[in-house]
Amino acid sequence: MGFLEKTKIRIAKVEERKNDSWVDMSLRTLREGEVRFYRVTDPVTGKWLFKVCVDGDMQRTVVKALKCPPGGGFVQLEGHTMLFQKSSVEGYYYGVISLSYPDETGRLRRNVVENLEEVPEIIKNIFKATSYEEATGKKAIGKRLAILCEEKDEKGMIALFLLQRAWPISKIPPSLGTAMPDLLKLIRSLERAEIKDIYQKMSEKHGVAEEDTEVLLRFLETEGKIRRVDEYIKTQT
Questions:
Q1: Residue 40, CB half-sphere, CA atoms under 13 Å: how many?
Q2: Could you give the CA distance from residue 22 to residue 2 in angstroms, rounded to a whole number?
Q3: d(Cα 127, Cα 207) in Å, to the nearest integer?
Q4: Residue 110: Cβ within 10 Å count
Q5: Interior CA angle at 87 toward 83 and 90, to 5°?
Q6: Which pTM value belongs to this model?
Q7: pLDDT tens, position by position, for the chain (237 residues)?
Q8: N or C: which end of the chain has fewer CB within 10 A?
Q9: Which residues, 6+ apart, have CB-to-CB distance to 70 below 8 Å?
Q10: Residue ranges covered by each domain of the chain
Q11: In CATH, which of 1.10.10.10, 3.30.420.40, 1.10.357.140, 2.60.40.3500 is domain 179-235?
Q12: Torsion of Cα atoms, 190 then 216 then 4 then 17, to 10°
């Protein structure tokens, strides 16, 4: 699973139900099938709890966010779902590509992506973005692009939810967020975590510029995970 390495997202299954029920909002009906629950730690946004509902008869998988990190943007994703359906491409399910964004009032909206250039690089580097027609074998108004995921890759589907719904509204750039675990690990490993040493080691080992490391340090400080003492950084226990 290359996306786990590239995004640093950690996903662990915590419960499995061979037969359960859920309401499929797009079909407006009660469905039955396999249900699994996953705990997720995302370095860019925080901790999540997801429910994955597998509708074998309809060849559909629904990914639902049950618990989200704190914050006005993320809390609006609580209860939201993402649908993946059987693709005409053998062995794959597809989902329509759309990205979250806040409107002028702070309310979350979704923008359906129409051009490949608008798809975030992290998504294109891990998953296959294709035309809706190729993914489904049919045309549909307002749906230009789709993303393919292996049909049993539930962790990949969860990652796609995060990459499309949560990463676009993160307080810090995703490119820096993925370096967060390395920064915390570095601070814990240094007996005396002097700020200038942190800058140097993040640059040498991870290619993160000094100003970008400072952005991460300020974020971790506001989140209560570290504190500054003179020219040193300490993790909060």
A1: 35
A2: 30
A3: 24
A4: 14
A5: 140
A6: 0.85
A7: 566 677 889 999 999 999 999 988 888 899 999 999 999 999 889 899 999 999 988 999 999 999 998 877 899 999 999 999 999 999 999 999 999 999 999 899 999 888 889 999 889 999 999 999 999 998 777 668 999 999 999 999 999 999 999 999 988 888 788 888 888 888 888 767 888 889 998 888 888 899 988 988 888 888 788 888 888 888 876
A8: C
A9: 46
A10: 2-169, 179-235
A11: 1.10.10.10
A12: 100
d(CA 46, CA 209): 23
* Crossing angle (nearest 10°) for helices 180-189 and 210-222: 80
Assess contact for 148 and 94: CB atoms under 8 A.
Answer: yes
CA atoms of 162 and 166, how far apart (whole Å): 5
Give the contacts of 204 (CB within 8 A, at least 6 positions apart): none
Q: E strands along 25-168, which residues?
A: 29-42, 46-55, 60-67, 81-86, 92-96, 98-102, 108-112, 128-131, 145-150
d(CA 17, CA 34): 6
- ∠ CA 12-180-81 to the nearest 5 degrees? 45
